[in-house]
Design brief:
It comes from Brockia lithotrophica. By secondary structure, the protein is α/β, with parallel strands linked by helices. The protein has helices at 29-38, 56-59, 72-82, 89-97, 99-109, 141-153, 219-227, 257-260, 286-298, 313-316, 318-327, 381-399, 407-419, 430-443, 450-470, 480-497, and strands at residues 18-25, 44-48, 64-65, 123-124, 134-135, 159-163, 166-173, 176-184, 187-198, 231-232, 237-244, 264-266, 303-306, 335-344, 347-349, 361-363, 368-369, 447-448, 506-507, 518-522, 547-551. Helix 15 (450-470) runs antiparallel to helix 16 (480-497). 56% of the residues are buried. Flavin-adenine dinucleotide binds next to helix 1, helix 2, helix 6, strand 7 and helix 7.
Length: 567
């Protein structure tokens, strides 16, 4: 297969499916790392709706968790403490045991980690950490990782990148994922593969205040569910307490490492806002800080970040310095901050190595729910998860090869291509997206209650019905708007079902935490035909499929534990 650069928009054989060994959807850190690894074993097609530098990964600031062998117990304890009794012990142990492999991979990539004169990694402390354990490259770990990954991928002859292409459908044949349908500038195309890896990120971009933008709308989550994968704990969305309070999305992040270096959250009068709220003060876990700032905001008390105690701000935090400079803020005065949706903890239910309940579909990175983060993610654990999980996924999928797409699959793919409407928009209507974002922020945001969540659900279902008025009924399932509204509605459905407060999920009407920690599972809708659509109006309603609350330690009758998910 021809070599191509990530970000390339090369020619496609429209009308005929593209066939590869592996299909990776999403070009954030999870997709890039997985494609790189798989490229050693076979041909890879890497498809994403944006280039690698427009992703959550490229914007990561603080760093990546890097516990040394003698610190694994302490790191496990910090992860558990943040995770609200829902951290999966098996996943935690497996991931921590592979930290050295993940860092060996990053060293090989040439990621320029900060080092002390003796060559050891410089590590900083972040919120929720007992000690400094986060490796960094100044305050732009995401940029460093993205540059290292894309440079290396450009030299990987087996990986072909197709950018600006939107996922429309995961294709399922005889109960297994066989590839996916995409569209670029309104023109559909199909990629068929032995195994499909979904690394489409989270859905925190669905909130009016968010550190994300259009790369994180969660379409992949809805489409995986629609194709037959179980989703888990969608209600757990982490809000970062200190985004710069300015108008446009994505709101720039003022990394937690600033508070690790002495910055303080204060009110208009300069009074520390977090004193007496939590024993860790300014370094309390994110959910506690975000909720305090939100509640204080409702009482009319605004939050500011006082950066003056940070030594050498410009040298130590160049990204933050530039953000403030560009936005016209003087770091010598406290800058206004707001909590903002930041990380989707829940997602496609996946095993340690990314297997889902749908055979031959893997879910990776923020799109997946492995149980590593429980009900609240410890800062900088997400990038660690990505680099461990992508290695495990690659090892797992290449251990026992799935069969290549057969003649019948190819014939069906051609039929699908002939049927899909052309000329549909590549992005959701901006008015609809604005409406969904306002709705989720106001009615399903940091502190929730049943009445507000029900109102959000009803409004989303109304919006969904209105889509049919915009295009012909058979075109509805292929509108980006449909998947966006679908993910938002599934998230609200999960939030409504969790009648307790735990981790990042705070219910005003259910403030207590249940003694029995439970997961929320969303089962996929019934699929009357194997190509993934075919319900009455051509697209399943987010109200379809069972919702089960299951004990964290058990699995429902007849449902396999993640370690037994099919390849
Ligand atoms: C501002 C910011 C700072 C952060 N800082 C840190 C940090 O310091 N440490 C840490 O551990 N974590 C941090 N995080 C979280 C972490 O960066 C993300 O969780 C992680 O990078 C997610 O990686 P990913 O590859 O799963 O998804 P992403 O990086 O979001 O990539 C998703 C990819 O999927 C593609 N895609 C999405 N939908 C579709 C579709 N429908 N069709 C085709 N392609 C699609 C996108 O174009 C993109 O290429 C931060 C996040 C943000 C936003």
């Amino acid at each position: 297969m021809a070599m191509s650069l990530p970000g390339e928009t090369g020619q496609l054989p429209f009308g005929d499916p593209l066939v590869a060994d592996y299909l990776v959807v999403g070009a954030g850190a999870a997709g890039l790392a997985t494609a790189l690894c798989l490229g050693k074993y076979g041909s890879v097609v890497l498809v994403s709706k944006g280039p690698p530098w427009v992703s959550a990964s490229s914007r990561a600031q603080g760093g990546i968790a890097c516990p040394l062998p003698e610190e694994l117990d302490e790191h496990a304890e910090d992860t558990r403490r943040a995770g609200g009794a829902l951290v999966d012990e098996g996943v935690l142990r497996t991931y921590l045991s592979r930290v050295p492999d993940a860092f060996a991979f990053l060293e090989e990539l040439g990621v320029p980690f900060e080092r002390a004169p003796n060559g050891s990694l410089v590590r900083v402390r972040e919120g929720g950490y007992a000690h400094a354990r986060v490796a960094r490259t100044a305050d732009h770990i995401g940029r460093s990782l993205t540059v290292a990954l894309t440079r290396t991928l450009a030299r990987a002859p087996a990986v072909r990148s197709l950018t600006y292409a939107r996922l429309l459908r995961i294709l399922v044949h005889e109960g297994s994922a066989v590839g996916a349908l995409f569209a670029r500038r309104g023109i559909p195309f199909v990629v068929l593969a032995r195994t499909t890896f979904l690394a489409t990120g989270g859905f925190a971009g669905l909130f009016a205040r968010s550190t994300h933008a259009a790369h994180a709308l969660g379409e992949g989550t809805f489409l995986a569910w629609e194709a037959g994968a179980v989703l888990r704990d969608l209600e757990f969305v982490q809000f970062h307490p200190t985004a710069l309070a300015r108008g446009r999305l994505p709101l720039p992040l003022l990394t937690e490492a600033l508070r690790g270096s002495g910055a303080r959250i204060v009110d208009e009068a300069g009074v520390p806002l977090l004193e007496g709220i939590h024993p860790l003060g300014d370094l309390a876990p994110r959910d506690a800080v975000a909720r305090t700032l939100y509640e204080e905001g409702l009482r009319g008390r605004s939050a500011f970040l006082d950066l003056r105690p940070v030594a050498n701000l410009r040298q130590s935090f160049p990204t933050v310095w530039h953000i403030l400079h560009r936005a016209g803020f003087d770091p010598e005065r406290p800058v206004p901050v707001t909590p903002a949706a930041h990380y989707a903890i829940g997602g496609i239910f996946a095993s340690t190595e990314g297997r889902t309940t749908l055979p031959r579909l893997y879910a990776l990175g923020e799109a997946a729910s492995t149980g590593f983060h429980g009900a609240n993610r410890l800062a900088s654990n997400s990038l660690l998860e990505i680099f461990v999980q992508s290695l495990l996924a690659c090892e797992d999928a290449t251990r026992a090869e799935a069969p290549p797409p057969g003649a019948e699959t190819i014939r069906r793919a051609r039929k699908v291509l002939a049927r899909v409407p052309r000329g549909l928009p590549d992005v959701p209507k901006s008015a609809l997206l604005r409406r969904v974002r306002e709705l989720l922020w106001r009615r399903a945001g940091i502190v929730r209650d049943g009445a507000e969540l029900r109102a959000a659900r009803d409004e989303l279902l109304r919006l969904r019905r209105k889509l049919a008025a915009r295009v012909s009924p058979e075109a509805v399932p292929f509108l980006p708007d449909a998947a966006v509204v679908g993910t938002a509605a599934l998230f609200v459905r999960s939030a409504l079902a969790r009648e307790e407060s735990r981790g990042v999920h705070a219910r005003r009407d259910f403030p207590r935490t249940d003694e029995r920690p439970r997961h929320t599972l969303l089962f996929p809708p019934a699929r009357p035909e194997t190509w993934g659509w075919g319900t009455a109006d051509g697209f399943p309603s987010p109200e379809e499929g069972d919702l089960l609350r299951v004990d964290a330690k058990g699995t429902p009758n007849g449902f396999p534990s993640p370690s037994a998910f099919p390849r």
